[in-house]
Amino acid sequence: MSEKSGPVRMILREESDDGCVVDTAYVSMPDTVNDPYVRSRITPAGQGVPREVITEFVPAPERPVSYLPTLPFVPGRAVFTTEPSSPAYPSGARWPCTDAPVLLESLVQISLAADWRRIPLPPREQLLGSPDIVLERGDVLRELQVVPVDG
User: Fold this and answer.
1) Cα–Cα distance measured from residue 8 to residue 13, given in angstroms and rounded to the nearest whole number
2) Which helix (H) or strand (E) segment is 136 a member of?
3) pLDDT tens-digit readout, 30-89
4) CA–CA separation, 69 vs 6, rounded Å?
5) How far apart are the first and last CA of the chain?
């Protein structure tokens, strides 16, 4: 179970190719569901309806009650999920780790067990990012990507 963190403030800095810089402040949001595996929930500051909610989950032995059903769940792993307010944007998950190949294989196996199938990389214009692996279920694609973070 988690200890709730105190109020969280975060600034996200995004730079576009043309040099434009946008800073977005994020703040803690109130709990709407009692979920013992949630450490924090943040959303962009100053918006009536948040455009997204980022939730930090501590490692859990089973899928937490407020974990998005559209995302794969890996038992025993801390994870950050992003839930957009608009269905036009995909939800996402980020697992901080030091064993990316092991985690990636776990995500593939969990997805295959849930009736996803691994497919060759589609043309770039069909993708959101630069995935290492793409899975498909019906007309939905799941992109899995390892992103090294220098620490």
Assistant:
1) 16
2) strand 133-137
3) 777 889 999 999 888 876 666 889 999 999 999 999 999 999 999 999 999 999 988 888
4) 27
5) 27
